[in-house]
């Protein structure tokens, strides 16, 4: 799946893109406003989708003078699953955070980075995870957890989970060596375990020394 295009999991058509826009805010939209967000779609195509969704009752249409506005019908039976779909990215991050929270003090820091963090996923994209473990934590248990985490990420999304992991001493050595990956995580990573403040502090401390 593409976390940045959640409706594509159920429909590859323009309908999903339009619903994603309408579900993004509880406000009214004109066709031109939707088109500015969906820059590759035609105004006529968007208008047809909105009219079709209006006929289904999912969208409410209003006309003020010559201006036509549209908004999601929050009372429609289909609205709850539509909103759930629109939140797939945050749902994934929340589920990941909850799962990693069960690892306790073994996990010092975790973040999603790469295309899943920057909103540039394609269907074939991996989901990149960065983990730092406590140096004195047992390798066997850790490896089992990492293997299970990769399996869960694929089960949740359909995308392969690619996990980059460091023991804490290895992480500090990578900081000292100026490992470029760490800059990517610092600039674009989405923290899912530990705190971003801890991660940034380690980078700054290592580079000062």
UniProtKB/TrEMBL annotation:
SUPFAM superfamilies (alphabetical): Nucleotidyltransferase
Q: Which domain of life is it from?
A: Bacteria
Q: Which InterPro entries match?
A: NT_sf
Any idea what this protein is called? Nucleotidyltransferase-like protein
Name the species this protein comes from.
Dietzia psychralcaliphila
């Amino acid at each position: 799946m593409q976390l940045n295009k959640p409706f594509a999991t159920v429909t590859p058509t323009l309908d999903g893109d339009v619903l994603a826009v309408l579900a993004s805010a509880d406000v009214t939209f004109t066709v031109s406003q939707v088109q500015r967000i969906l820059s590759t779609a035609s105004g006529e195509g968007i208008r047809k989708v909105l009219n079709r969704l209006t006929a289904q009752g999912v969208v409410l249409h209003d006309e003020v003078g010559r201006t036509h506005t549209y908004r999601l019908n929050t009372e429609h039976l289909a609205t709850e699953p539509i909103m759930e779909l629109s939140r797939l990215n945050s749902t994934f991050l929340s589920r990941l955070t909850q799962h990693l929270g069960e690892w306790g003090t073994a996990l010092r820091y975790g973040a999603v980075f790469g295309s899943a963090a920057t909103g540039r996923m394609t269907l074939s994209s991996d989901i990149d995870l960065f983990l730092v473990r406590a140096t004195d934590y047992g390798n066997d248990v850790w490896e089992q957890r990492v293997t299970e985490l990769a399996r869960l990420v694929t089960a949740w999304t359909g995308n392969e989970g690619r996990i980059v992991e460091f023991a804490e001493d290895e992480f500090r050595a990578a900081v000292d060596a100026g490992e470029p990956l760490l800059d990517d995580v610092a600039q674009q990573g989405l923290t899912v375990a530990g705190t971003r403040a801890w991660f940034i502090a380690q980078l700054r401390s290592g580079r000062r020394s």
